[in-house]
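Repro case for the chain-ordering regression, as requested:
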Amino acid sequence: MTAVTAPPDAVSAPASLADQLLTVRMKLSELWHLIAIHVSDDRSSAVPEPLIREAARYLSAHPPEEWPLAARRPGHERTAAAAAVAERFTDGQLVQRIETAKREVEYARTIFRAVADLVDPIDPAVLEAEARASLATPAGQSIAELLAEFDRVNGG
Amino acid sequence: MPPEPFRVHLSAAVLDSLRAIVRLFAALGETERIQSDLLAADSALRWYADEWGESRFEVGEIGQMRFAQLGRVTVWYAVHLGRRDVSVARFGFVRPRA
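-- result from build under test --
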């Protein structure tokens, strides 16, 4: 069995204001990315036009790729991103921006849930049963192993 | 002290669906793209499962059901923070543009 080790840049450190702002903005970006998936889905005709317009307005203000996922990770990229943010703003401005971003996250969360429930209605009982089936499965093939198997079979 | 990774549990049905997704993207000539997305999703599940994506509802003792997306890959999974268990319910994908 392959030993699982932490990423080399995984560290725990108290979050600075710039870090906090990055984290909240990451969540905001991620939520709008999720919304983008749903409103671009073929089934989005289920979503009322005003909600689509609202999503489009926010998506143009918050490009999904604005804060890449990698920046969430502790380490060099995260440190550099946080340093750049800290250089641009005073502590007071950072606090203000964190609060604003938190409110935007809550708003995006509301939109996401509304859109997701319309476009991709889910049955919680079915999802729960599927998750329980996985939990009951003894540790087996990992995603990386599955991909390696695919490469072997297909000569990749 | 480095964080402890989550244990990622995958049922036979989930593994079969993953193979189907990889075959589909391979047929479209996007093997590298889907493999890269799946490896990144695997990493997110192992290291950031409790904050990746968006929580949707609680599922009793198996934890919190979340929906997440990375590149072309979408995933529904339950995460139990205390036990560090991730139980994948299903993988999906964002349709490639025609």
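Ordering looks correct now. Residues 17-122 of chain A form one domain.
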